[in-house]
Design goal:
Blueprint (H helix, E strand, L loop, with lengths): L1 H10 L9 H22 L1 H10 L18 E2 H10 L16 E5 L3 E5 L5 H9 L7 E4 L8 H11 L3 E4 L5 H10 L4 E4 L1 H13 L4 H4 L4 E4 L6 H11 L2 E8 L4 E5 L7 E3 L3 E6 L13 E7 L10 E7 L1 E2 L11 E2 L9 E4 L2 E4 H8 L5 E11 L2 E10 L6 H16 L5 E6 L10 E3 L5
Parallel strand pairs: 1-13, 4-5, 4-6, 6-7, 7-8, 18-21, 19-20
Antiparallel strand pairs: 2-3, 8-9, 9-10, 10-15, 11-12, 12-13, 14-15, 16-17, 18-19
Length: 430
Protein backbone atom coordinates (compact mmCIF):
# COMPACT_ATOMS: atom_id res chain seq x y z
CA UNK A 1 0.00 0.00 0.00
CA UNK A 2 2.83 2.37 0.89
CA UNK A 3 4.49 1.58 -2.44
CA UNK A 4 1.27 2.35 -4.33
CA UNK A 5 1.00 5.72 -2.57
CA UNK A 6 4.61 6.54 -3.39
CA UNK A 7 4.05 5.77 -7.08
CA UNK A 8 0.95 7.92 -7.10
CA UNK A 9 2.85 10.81 -5.50
CA UNK A 10 5.79 10.52 -7.89
CA UNK A 11 3.53 10.50 -10.94
CA UNK A 12 1.79 13.69 -9.76
CA UNK A 13 -1.60 12.62 -11.06
CA UNK A 14 -4.48 14.77 -9.92
CA UNK A 15 -8.07 13.61 -9.65
CA UNK A 16 -8.85 14.91 -13.14
CA UNK A 17 -6.07 13.01 -14.91
CA UNK A 18 -7.24 9.64 -13.62
CA UNK A 19 -11.02 9.99 -13.67
CA UNK A 20 -13.07 7.05 -14.91
CA UNK A 21 -15.13 7.50 -18.07
CA UNK A 22 -18.31 7.93 -16.03
CA UNK A 23 -16.65 10.43 -13.69
CA UNK A 24 -15.36 12.44 -16.64
CA UNK A 25 -18.79 12.50 -18.29
CA UNK A 26 -20.37 13.77 -15.05
CA UNK A 27 -17.58 16.31 -14.57
CA UNK A 28 -17.99 17.79 -18.05
CA UNK A 29 -21.77 17.77 -17.85
CA UNK A 30 -21.52 19.89 -14.72
CA UNK A 31 -18.80 22.12 -16.12
CA UNK A 32 -20.39 22.84 -19.48
CA UNK A 33 -23.64 23.98 -17.85
CA UNK A 34 -21.86 26.23 -15.35
CA UNK A 35 -19.51 27.67 -17.97
CA UNK A 36 -22.26 28.61 -20.43
CA UNK A 37 -24.46 30.06 -17.67
CA UNK A 38 -21.59 32.13 -16.27
CA UNK A 39 -20.71 33.45 -19.75
CA UNK A 40 -24.35 34.28 -20.52
CA UNK A 41 -24.89 36.10 -17.24
CA UNK A 42 -21.62 38.05 -17.19
CA UNK A 43 -20.20 38.40 -20.73
CA UNK A 44 -22.36 40.55 -23.04
CA UNK A 45 -20.76 39.03 -26.15
CA UNK A 46 -21.69 35.51 -25.03
CA UNK A 47 -25.24 36.60 -24.16
CA UNK A 48 -25.64 38.19 -27.57
CA UNK A 49 -24.31 35.04 -29.26
CA UNK A 50 -26.81 32.78 -27.47
CA UNK A 51 -29.69 35.18 -28.00
CA UNK A 52 -28.92 35.50 -31.71
CA UNK A 53 -28.83 31.69 -31.97
CA UNK A 54 -32.16 31.46 -30.14
CA UNK A 55 -30.58 29.33 -27.42
CA UNK A 56 -31.01 29.67 -23.66
CA UNK A 57 -28.25 28.55 -21.24
CA UNK A 58 -30.58 25.89 -19.82
CA UNK A 59 -30.50 24.11 -23.19
CA UNK A 60 -26.73 23.49 -22.93
CA UNK A 61 -26.51 20.45 -20.67
CA UNK A 62 -23.92 18.30 -22.44
CA UNK A 63 -20.94 18.73 -24.75
CA UNK A 64 -23.15 17.62 -27.64
CA UNK A 65 -25.47 20.57 -26.91
CA UNK A 66 -22.64 22.99 -27.71
CA UNK A 67 -23.43 22.34 -31.38
CA UNK A 68 -26.36 24.72 -30.89
CA UNK A 69 -23.85 27.59 -30.62
CA UNK A 70 -21.76 29.10 -33.43
CA UNK A 71 -17.97 28.80 -33.50
CA UNK A 72 -16.11 32.01 -32.60
CA UNK A 73 -12.86 32.59 -34.46
CA UNK A 74 -9.81 34.78 -33.98
CA UNK A 75 -10.99 37.27 -36.61
CA UNK A 76 -14.34 37.55 -34.78
CA UNK A 77 -12.63 38.44 -31.51
CA UNK A 78 -10.43 41.02 -33.24
CA UNK A 79 -13.46 42.73 -34.75
CA UNK A 80 -15.47 42.58 -31.49
CA UNK A 81 -12.62 44.11 -29.53
CA UNK A 82 -12.32 46.89 -32.10
CA UNK A 83 -16.03 47.71 -31.87
CA UNK A 84 -16.27 47.18 -28.11
CA UNK A 85 -12.83 47.84 -26.60
CA UNK A 86 -10.88 46.60 -24.88
CA UNK A 87 -12.26 43.07 -24.31
CA UNK A 88 -15.02 42.78 -26.88
CA UNK A 89 -17.70 41.93 -24.32
CA UNK A 90 -16.07 38.65 -23.22
CA UNK A 91 -14.95 39.79 -19.75
CA UNK A 92 -16.91 38.07 -16.97
CA UNK A 93 -15.44 39.89 -13.96
CA UNK A 94 -15.09 43.56 -12.92
CA UNK A 95 -12.13 45.20 -14.67
CA UNK A 96 -10.45 46.08 -11.36
CA UNK A 97 -10.32 42.34 -10.52
CA UNK A 98 -8.10 41.58 -13.55
CA UNK A 99 -4.66 40.47 -12.41
CA UNK A 100 -2.83 40.66 -15.75
CA UNK A 101 -3.54 41.27 -19.42
CA UNK A 102 -1.77 39.47 -22.23
CA UNK A 103 -1.71 40.53 -25.86
CA UNK A 104 -1.75 38.03 -28.72
CA UNK A 105 -1.45 38.84 -32.43
CA UNK A 106 -4.50 40.64 -33.75
CA UNK A 107 -4.13 42.33 -31.37
CA UNK A 108 -6.33 40.44 -28.93
CA UNK A 109 -6.36 41.55 -25.29
CA UNK A 110 -6.69 38.59 -22.94
CA UNK A 111 -7.52 39.40 -19.30
CA UNK A 112 -6.57 36.87 -16.64
CA UNK A 113 -7.42 36.37 -13.00
CA UNK A 114 -4.95 34.06 -11.30
CA UNK A 115 -6.51 30.67 -10.58
CA UNK A 116 -3.34 28.73 -9.83
CA UNK A 117 -0.94 27.03 -12.23
CA UNK A 118 -1.34 23.37 -11.26
CA UNK A 119 -3.50 22.69 -14.33
CA UNK A 120 -0.64 23.79 -16.61
CA UNK A 121 2.23 22.47 -14.51
CA UNK A 122 1.08 18.87 -14.89
CA UNK A 123 2.18 18.99 -18.55
CA UNK A 124 5.72 19.85 -17.39
CA UNK A 125 5.62 17.20 -14.68
CA UNK A 126 4.63 14.64 -17.30
CA UNK A 127 7.77 15.68 -19.21
CA UNK A 128 9.94 14.88 -16.18
CA UNK A 129 10.77 18.31 -14.76
CA UNK A 130 11.59 18.06 -11.06
CA UNK A 131 13.33 19.84 -8.20
CA UNK A 132 17.02 20.04 -9.06
CA UNK A 133 16.44 20.77 -12.74
CA UNK A 134 17.65 24.08 -14.12
CA UNK A 135 15.35 24.99 -17.01
CA UNK A 136 15.92 27.72 -19.59
CA UNK A 137 12.60 29.23 -20.66
CA UNK A 138 13.04 30.70 -24.14
CA UNK A 139 9.48 31.96 -24.63
CA UNK A 140 8.92 35.69 -24.63
CA UNK A 141 7.88 37.43 -21.42
CA UNK A 142 6.78 40.45 -23.45
CA UNK A 143 2.96 40.71 -23.78
CA UNK A 144 2.54 37.01 -24.67
CA UNK A 145 1.33 34.61 -21.93
CA UNK A 146 3.86 31.93 -22.89
CA UNK A 147 6.87 33.21 -20.91
CA UNK A 148 5.17 33.87 -17.58
CA UNK A 149 2.88 30.83 -17.60
CA UNK A 150 5.73 28.46 -18.48
CA UNK A 151 7.90 30.09 -15.82
CA UNK A 152 5.25 29.54 -13.15
CA UNK A 153 4.65 25.96 -14.27
CA UNK A 154 8.37 25.14 -14.15
CA UNK A 155 8.53 26.51 -10.61
CA UNK A 156 5.44 24.55 -9.57
CA UNK A 157 7.31 21.37 -10.46
CA UNK A 158 10.10 22.46 -8.11
CA UNK A 159 12.59 23.21 -10.89
CA UNK A 160 14.62 26.39 -11.27
CA UNK A 161 13.43 28.65 -14.10
CA UNK A 162 15.89 30.77 -16.10
CA UNK A 163 13.98 33.50 -18.02
CA UNK A 164 16.20 33.88 -21.08
CA UNK A 165 13.31 34.82 -23.39
CA UNK A 166 13.47 34.80 -27.19
CA UNK A 167 16.41 35.30 -29.54
CA UNK A 168 19.99 35.97 -28.39
CA UNK A 169 21.14 32.50 -29.42
CA UNK A 170 24.81 32.95 -28.44
CA UNK A 171 23.85 34.41 -25.05
CA UNK A 172 21.52 31.47 -24.45
CA UNK A 173 24.32 29.05 -25.30
CA UNK A 174 26.55 30.65 -22.64
CA UNK A 175 23.77 30.70 -20.02
CA UNK A 176 22.95 27.03 -20.62
CA UNK A 177 26.61 26.10 -20.36
CA UNK A 178 27.45 28.21 -17.31
CA UNK A 179 24.35 27.20 -15.34
CA UNK A 180 24.55 23.56 -16.41
CA UNK A 181 20.94 23.72 -17.57
CA UNK A 182 19.25 20.33 -17.58
CA UNK A 183 15.99 21.41 -19.23
CA UNK A 184 14.76 23.49 -22.14
CA UNK A 185 11.35 25.06 -22.76
CA UNK A 186 10.56 26.68 -26.11
CA UNK A 187 10.19 25.77 -29.78
CA UNK A 188 12.09 22.84 -31.29
CA UNK A 189 13.59 25.02 -34.02
CA UNK A 190 15.18 27.35 -31.47
CA UNK A 191 16.72 24.43 -29.58
CA UNK A 192 18.18 23.19 -32.85
CA UNK A 193 19.53 26.71 -33.49
CA UNK A 194 21.13 26.72 -30.01
CA UNK A 195 22.78 23.36 -30.65
CA UNK A 196 24.04 24.52 -34.04
CA UNK A 197 25.42 27.74 -32.53
CA UNK A 198 27.18 25.80 -29.77
CA UNK A 199 28.78 23.49 -32.30
CA UNK A 200 29.88 26.45 -34.44
CA UNK A 201 31.56 27.85 -31.31
CA UNK A 202 33.54 24.62 -31.02
CA UNK A 203 31.51 22.78 -28.38
CA UNK A 204 30.43 19.16 -28.43
CA UNK A 205 26.83 19.69 -27.30
CA UNK A 206 26.23 16.13 -26.20
CA UNK A 207 29.47 16.07 -24.19
CA UNK A 208 29.79 19.64 -22.93
CA UNK A 209 26.16 20.47 -22.13
CA UNK A 210 23.77 18.95 -19.59
CA UNK A 211 20.33 19.24 -21.24
CA UNK A 212 18.38 16.02 -20.68
CA UNK A 213 14.78 17.00 -21.41
CA UNK A 214 12.87 19.52 -23.50
CA UNK A 215 9.26 20.73 -23.51
CA UNK A 216 8.00 22.20 -26.78
CA UNK A 217 5.03 24.17 -28.01
CA UNK A 218 4.44 26.95 -30.53
CA UNK A 219 5.28 24.86 -33.58
CA UNK A 220 5.06 21.25 -34.66
CA UNK A 221 7.73 18.83 -33.52
CA UNK A 222 8.75 17.11 -36.74
CA UNK A 223 9.53 13.40 -36.33
CA UNK A 224 12.97 13.92 -37.89
CA UNK A 225 13.81 16.66 -35.35
CA UNK A 226 12.63 14.50 -32.44
CA UNK A 227 14.78 11.64 -33.72
CA UNK A 228 17.82 13.91 -33.98
CA UNK A 229 17.38 15.38 -30.50
CA UNK A 230 16.71 12.04 -28.81
CA UNK A 231 19.17 9.80 -30.66
CA UNK A 232 22.04 12.20 -31.41
CA UNK A 233 21.87 14.39 -28.27
CA UNK A 234 20.11 12.19 -25.66
CA UNK A 235 17.44 14.84 -25.03
CA UNK A 236 14.08 13.44 -23.95
CA UNK A 237 11.50 15.49 -25.90
CA UNK A 238 7.87 16.30 -25.08
CA UNK A 239 5.34 18.50 -26.82
CA UNK A 240 2.19 20.32 -25.80
CA UNK A 241 -0.57 21.90 -27.84
CA UNK A 242 -1.34 25.42 -26.65
CA UNK A 243 -3.72 28.13 -27.87
CA UNK A 244 -3.48 31.60 -26.34
CA UNK A 245 -7.06 32.83 -26.81
CA UNK A 246 -8.79 30.22 -24.61
CA UNK A 247 -6.00 30.42 -22.05
CA UNK A 248 -3.03 28.13 -22.64
CA UNK A 249 -2.11 24.46 -23.04
CA UNK A 250 -4.92 22.22 -24.31
CA UNK A 251 -3.14 18.87 -24.54
CA UNK A 252 0.24 17.37 -23.61
CA UNK A 253 2.39 14.29 -24.04
CA UNK A 254 3.18 11.71 -21.40
CA UNK A 255 6.26 9.50 -21.58
CA UNK A 256 4.44 7.11 -23.95
CA UNK A 257 4.53 9.85 -26.63
CA UNK A 258 1.56 8.38 -28.45
CA UNK A 259 -0.81 11.33 -28.80
CA UNK A 260 -1.40 14.31 -26.51
CA UNK A 261 -3.62 13.88 -23.46
CA UNK A 262 -6.51 16.35 -23.44
CA UNK A 263 -6.58 18.58 -20.38
CA UNK A 264 -9.84 18.37 -18.46
CA UNK A 265 -9.72 22.12 -17.90
CA UNK A 266 -11.05 22.51 -21.46
CA UNK A 267 -13.83 21.05 -23.52
CA UNK A 268 -12.27 20.06 -26.84
CA UNK A 269 -14.48 19.32 -29.84
CA UNK A 270 -13.42 18.15 -33.28
CA UNK A 271 -15.88 19.70 -35.71
CA UNK A 272 -16.64 20.07 -39.38
CA UNK A 273 -15.29 23.58 -40.05
CA UNK A 274 -18.06 24.21 -42.57
CA UNK A 275 -20.95 23.84 -40.11
CA UNK A 276 -19.53 23.42 -36.58
CA UNK A 277 -21.03 19.93 -36.18
CA UNK A 278 -19.07 17.52 -33.99
CA UNK A 279 -17.24 14.63 -35.64
CA UNK A 280 -16.66 11.14 -34.32
CA UNK A 281 -13.41 10.01 -32.69
CA UNK A 282 -10.83 9.36 -35.38
CA UNK A 283 -12.30 11.82 -37.89
CA UNK A 284 -10.16 14.82 -38.81
CA UNK A 285 -11.72 18.24 -38.25
CA UNK A 286 -11.14 21.62 -36.64
CA UNK A 287 -10.11 21.79 -32.99
CA UNK A 288 -12.71 23.88 -31.12
CA UNK A 289 -12.02 24.78 -27.49
CA UNK A 290 -14.12 26.01 -24.55
CA UNK A 291 -12.25 26.73 -21.28
CA UNK A 292 -14.11 25.45 -18.21
CA UNK A 293 -11.55 26.12 -15.47
CA UNK A 294 -11.50 29.92 -15.64
CA UNK A 295 -14.57 32.07 -15.09
CA UNK A 296 -12.78 35.27 -16.16
CA UNK A 297 -13.12 34.92 -19.91
CA UNK A 298 -16.55 34.14 -21.40
CA UNK A 299 -15.22 32.58 -24.59
CA UNK A 300 -17.35 29.69 -25.87
CA UNK A 301 -16.47 27.37 -28.77
CA UNK A 302 -13.27 29.04 -29.95
CA UNK A 303 -12.23 27.76 -33.37
CA UNK A 304 -8.46 27.34 -33.39
CA UNK A 305 -8.13 26.81 -37.15
CA UNK A 306 -6.02 23.72 -36.42
CA UNK A 307 -6.97 20.31 -37.80
CA UNK A 308 -6.71 17.14 -35.73
CA UNK A 309 -8.62 14.07 -34.55
CA UNK A 310 -9.38 12.41 -31.22
CA UNK A 311 -7.90 9.08 -30.14
CA UNK A 312 -9.66 7.10 -27.42
CA UNK A 313 -7.37 4.38 -26.15
CA UNK A 314 -5.99 3.02 -22.89
CA UNK A 315 -2.67 4.72 -22.17
CA UNK A 316 -0.08 2.72 -20.19
CA UNK A 317 0.88 5.90 -18.29
CA UNK A 318 -2.33 5.72 -16.25
CA UNK A 319 -3.90 8.94 -17.49
CA UNK A 320 -7.44 8.27 -18.66
CA UNK A 321 -8.31 11.23 -20.87
CA UNK A 322 -8.70 10.95 -24.60
CA UNK A 323 -5.83 12.17 -26.78
CA UNK A 324 -5.34 14.65 -29.55
CA UNK A 325 -3.66 13.03 -32.55
CA UNK A 326 -1.21 15.87 -33.16
CA UNK A 327 -1.92 18.83 -35.45
CA UNK A 328 -2.49 17.77 -39.03
CA UNK A 329 -2.81 21.14 -40.73
CA UNK A 330 -4.71 24.44 -40.63
CA UNK A 331 -7.75 26.02 -42.18
CA UNK A 332 -8.29 29.65 -43.10
CA UNK A 333 -5.99 32.60 -43.56
CA UNK A 334 -3.71 32.38 -40.54
CA UNK A 335 -0.48 30.52 -39.98
CA UNK A 336 1.90 30.08 -37.04
CA UNK A 337 5.48 31.12 -37.81
CA UNK A 338 8.23 30.53 -35.26
CA UNK A 339 5.63 30.29 -32.51
CA UNK A 340 3.60 33.40 -33.46
CA UNK A 341 0.39 33.55 -35.50
CA UNK A 342 0.45 35.66 -38.64
CA UNK A 343 -3.13 36.66 -39.42
CA UNK A 344 -4.25 37.83 -42.83
CA UNK A 345 -6.13 40.84 -41.44
CA UNK A 346 -3.06 41.97 -39.49
CA UNK A 347 -0.88 41.69 -42.57
CA UNK A 348 -3.43 43.74 -44.51
CA UNK A 349 -3.05 46.54 -41.99
CA UNK A 350 0.72 46.52 -42.61
CA UNK A 351 0.52 46.84 -46.38
CA UNK A 352 -2.29 49.39 -46.22
CA UNK A 353 0.38 51.80 -44.98
CA UNK A 354 2.47 51.44 -48.15
CA UNK A 355 0.87 53.00 -51.22
CA UNK A 356 3.65 51.53 -53.37
CA UNK A 357 2.28 47.99 -52.74
CA UNK A 358 -0.82 47.00 -54.72
CA UNK A 359 -0.90 43.27 -53.80
CA UNK A 360 1.01 40.95 -51.50
CA UNK A 361 1.42 37.31 -50.60
CA UNK A 362 3.16 35.57 -47.68
CA UNK A 363 4.83 32.18 -48.18
CA UNK A 364 6.12 30.04 -45.32
CA UNK A 365 8.64 27.26 -45.92
CA UNK A 366 10.63 24.96 -43.67
CA UNK A 367 14.38 25.12 -44.33
CA UNK A 368 16.99 23.43 -42.12
CA UNK A 369 14.37 22.86 -39.39
CA UNK A 370 13.48 26.55 -39.24
CA UNK A 371 10.40 28.44 -40.42
CA UNK A 372 11.26 30.90 -43.19
CA UNK A 373 8.76 33.54 -44.23
CA UNK A 374 8.93 35.36 -47.55
CA UNK A 375 6.78 38.34 -48.50
CA UNK A 376 6.15 38.89 -52.20
CA UNK A 377 4.86 42.41 -52.90
CA UNK A 378 3.56 43.77 -56.18
CA UNK A 379 4.64 47.37 -56.76
CA UNK A 380 2.55 49.98 -58.52
CA UNK A 381 5.75 50.94 -60.40
CA UNK A 382 9.52 50.62 -60.09
CA UNK A 383 10.08 54.24 -59.09
CA UNK A 384 11.18 53.62 -55.49
CA UNK A 385 14.17 52.65 -53.40
CA UNK A 386 13.48 48.93 -52.97
CA UNK A 387 16.09 48.41 -50.27
CA UNK A 388 14.67 51.22 -48.16
CA UNK A 389 11.08 50.04 -48.81
CA UNK A 390 11.98 46.48 -47.78
CA UNK A 391 13.48 47.75 -44.53
CA UNK A 392 10.37 49.83 -43.78
CA UNK A 393 7.97 46.96 -44.55
CA UNK A 394 10.04 44.53 -42.47
CA UNK A 395 10.09 46.86 -39.46
CA UNK A 396 6.36 47.61 -39.69
CA UNK A 397 5.53 43.92 -40.15
CA UNK A 398 7.57 43.01 -37.06
CA UNK A 399 5.89 45.71 -34.97
CA UNK A 400 2.35 44.60 -35.89
CA UNK A 401 2.68 40.84 -36.48
CA UNK A 402 5.50 40.27 -33.94
CA UNK A 403 7.61 38.19 -36.31
CA UNK A 404 10.32 39.32 -38.73
CA UNK A 405 10.08 38.32 -42.41
CA UNK A 406 13.19 36.56 -43.69
CA UNK A 407 12.92 37.90 -47.21
CA UNK A 408 10.91 40.54 -49.10
CA UNK A 409 10.68 40.15 -52.88
CA UNK A 410 9.26 42.85 -55.13
CA UNK A 411 7.52 41.99 -58.38
CA UNK A 412 5.73 44.04 -61.02
CA UNK A 413 1.98 44.62 -60.92
CA UNK A 414 -0.06 41.69 -62.24
CA UNK A 415 2.48 39.01 -61.28
CA UNK A 416 0.59 37.48 -58.36
CA UNK A 417 -2.58 35.49 -59.14
CA UNK A 418 -5.75 37.55 -58.73
CA UNK A 419 -7.59 34.84 -56.79
CA UNK A 420 -4.59 33.47 -54.91
CA UNK A 421 -4.41 32.95 -51.13
CA UNK A 422 -2.74 35.72 -49.17
CA UNK A 423 -0.86 33.24 -46.95
CA UNK A 424 0.63 30.01 -48.30
CA UNK A 425 2.09 27.38 -45.97
CA UNK A 426 4.44 25.02 -47.82
CA UNK A 427 5.88 23.34 -44.74
CA UNK A 428 6.08 19.57 -44.46
CA UNK A 429 6.64 18.14 -40.98
CA UNK A 430 8.69 15.03 -41.60
Amino acid sequence: MALDNQIKKDEYFDELETMSANERDAYFKNRVAKTVTNAYNNAPAAKRMLDNAGVSPSQIKTIKDLELLPVTRKADIIEMQKSNPPYGGFLCIPEDDIERVFVSPGPIYEPMQHTGIKWFAKSFWAAGFRKGDVVVNTFTYHMSPAGILCHEAIRDCGATAVPVGTGHTEVTVKVMLDLRATGYVGTPSFLMAIIKQAEELGYDFKKDFYVKRAWFTGEMLAPSVRKTLEEDYNIDTYQAYAVTEPGGAIAYECNCKDGLHLMDEYIVEIVNPANGKQLSDGEVGEVVVTPVHNSTWGLLRFGTGDLSSIVDDVCPCGRTSKKLNGIQGRIGEAVKVRGMFVVSKQAESVFAQFEEVVKWQITVNRIDQRDEMTITAELINDVCDKIELADEIGAKFKSICLVTPDKIDFVSSGTLPQDGKSIIDNRKWE
